[in-house]
């Protein structure tokens, strides 16, 4: 019995040691440090740009508004928005407006006025006949006096008096004719006031005004789409050439000082559309207030961009289209670039985490400039090195990592 006691104790020690080893292995397997899943990017050589990204809209360089030259009746337009027109094409037609209707009392007054004008005309005609008779008599007496003066039967003074009487009769006839003309006009005016509009003869264009397009272009807007009375100066339609467009980009007044005329601009009309190149031509010297999407009042300045249109996409541009614009302020070719998402602020310096042999190594870097996408490195990294993106507080120097 005593000889077996040590062997039993030995087996107990061996079993306990194995149990401790298995437990330790399980604890290490569960609680051992695991590599952190990370996103990475490579340091590259490329072109660095400092730019301003804003939105804006397209507008026509020249817009022509066709207006009514006088009060008239607009005939139903035959053009539609988007129709192409050539310079000299008729784009609108006007006819004289019909007179207003009159009530019974006004009609009676106008009828009496027309009767008075007719009586005055007859009186003036009688005066003309009387003046004509007087002139004929004066002409006979002047002729007779001339013959008698030649035979010395009357004096020269009597002859001259007869000639002057004939001239006075001629002047009286001219005055009577003028009075008759005035009476004719007064009668015509009274008749016109009393007359009513008559329907135009089929297809008649008497008194029709035709308004023509001043330029080649397209119809942009119809202010009236049906026949209607219009007043002088009332807009009828807008015409413009969509081949000559420009962009208006509103920029914060604090940033617009960095922009210079001639700066290159990339314009985008949305997903799937090829970007259009442009160039800053003018910066307006007046700011205006605009409320942002967050409800903040901002002072903004319009920057005018000339479009270098080319290709089939330029034919589909339109007035008022929204665009996204990137205005280039500075450009540096062959720059060492690192994603901005890899930078971590360290007091007054910058640092990044470089992936080396499965571990994240903190490394200080110096940058020349940065934008929303990349930073232009001065020193601290080499082309082709791999850096962590969006390093959080869980990443420390020497941390084991695994690329996601």
How would you characterize the overall build of this protein?
The protein is α+β, with helices and mostly antiparallel strands and about 400 residues long. It folds into three domains: about 50-60 and about 245-404, Elongation Factor Tu (Ef-tu), domain 3 (Beta Barrel), CATH 2.40.30; about 65-95 and about 200-240, RNA polymerase II/Efflux pump adaptor protein, barrel-sandwich hybrid domain (OB fold (Dihydrolipoamide Acetyltransferase, E2P), Beta Barrel); about 105-195, Helix Hairpins (Orthogonal Bundle), CATH 1.10.287. The chain has helices spanning about 5-30, 105-150, 155-195; strands at about 35-40, 45-60, 65, 70-75, 85, 90-95, 210, 215-220, 230, 235-240, 245-250, 265-270, 275-290, 295-305, 320-340, 345, 350-355, 360-370, 375-380, 385-390, 400-404. The strands form three sheets. It has a six-stranded antiparallel barrel with strand order 2-11-14-13-12-15. The longest helix is centred in the N-terminal third of the chain and has 47 residues, at about 105-150.
How are the secondary structure elements laid out?
Layout: H1 5-31, E1 36-42, E2 44-60, E3 63-67, E4 72-74, E5 84-85, E6 90-95, H2 104-150, H3 156-194, E7 209-212, E8 217-222, E9 228-230, E10 235-240, E11 245-252, E12 264-268, E13 276-291, E14 297-307, E15 322-339, E16 344-346, E17 349-356, E18 359-370, E19 374-379, E20 386-389, E21 399-403
Parallel strand pairs: 1-21
Antiparallel strand pairs: 1-20, 2-11, 2-15, 3-10, 4-6, 4-9, 5-8, 6-7, 8-10, 11-14, 12-13, 12-15, 13-14, 15-19, 16-17, 17-18, 18-19, 18-21
């Amino acid at each position: 019995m005593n000889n077996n006691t040590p062997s039993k104790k030995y087996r107990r020690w061996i079993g306990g040691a194995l149990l401790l080893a298995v437990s330790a292995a399980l604890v290490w397997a569960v609680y051992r440090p695991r590599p952190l899943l990370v996103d990475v990017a490579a340091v590259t050589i490329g072109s660095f740009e400092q730019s301003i990204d804003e939105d804006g809209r397209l507008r026509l360089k020249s817009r022509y508004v066709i207006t009514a030259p006088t009060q008239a009746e607009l005939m139903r337009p035959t053009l539609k928005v988007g129709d192409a027109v050539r310079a000299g094409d008729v784009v609108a037609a006007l006819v004289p407006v019909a007179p207003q209707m009159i009530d019974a009392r006004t009609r009676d007054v106008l009828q009496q006025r027309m009767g008075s004008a007719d009586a005055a005309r007859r009186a003036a005609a009688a005066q003309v006949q009387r003046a004509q008779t007087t002139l004929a008599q004066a002409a006979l007496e002047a002729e007779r006096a001339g013959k008698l003066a030649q035979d010395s039967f009357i004096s020269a003074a009597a002859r001259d008096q007869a000639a002057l009487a004939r001239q006075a009769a001629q002047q009286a006839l001219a005055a009577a004719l003028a009075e008759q003309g005035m009476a004719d006009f007064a009668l015509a005016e009274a008749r016109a006031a009393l007359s009513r509009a008559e329907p135009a003869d089929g297809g008649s264009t008497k008194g029709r005004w035709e308004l023509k397009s001043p330029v080649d272009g397209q119809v942009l807007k119809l202010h009236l789409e049906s026949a209607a009375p219009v007043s002088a100066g009332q807009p009828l339609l807008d015409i413009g050439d969509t081949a000559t467009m420009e962009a208006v980009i509103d920029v914060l007044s604090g940033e617009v000082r960095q922009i210079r005329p001639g700066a290159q601009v990339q314009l985008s009309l949305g997903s799937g559309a090829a970007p259009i190149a442009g160039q800053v031509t003018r910066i307006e010297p007046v700011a205006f207030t605009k409320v942002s999407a967050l409800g903040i009042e901002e002072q903004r300045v319009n920057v005018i961009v000339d479009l270098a249109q080319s290709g089939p996409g330029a034919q589909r541009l339109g007035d008022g289209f929204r665009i996204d614009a990137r205005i280039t302020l500075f450009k540096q070719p062959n720059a060492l670039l690192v994603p901005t998402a890899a930078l971590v602020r360290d007091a007054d310096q910058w640092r990044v985490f470089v992936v080396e042999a499965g571990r994240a190594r903190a490394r200080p870097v110096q940058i020349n400039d940065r934008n929303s996408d990349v930073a232009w490195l001065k020193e601290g990294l080499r082309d082709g090195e791999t850096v962590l993106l969006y390093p959080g507080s869980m990443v420390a120097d020497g941390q084991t990592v695994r690329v996601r």
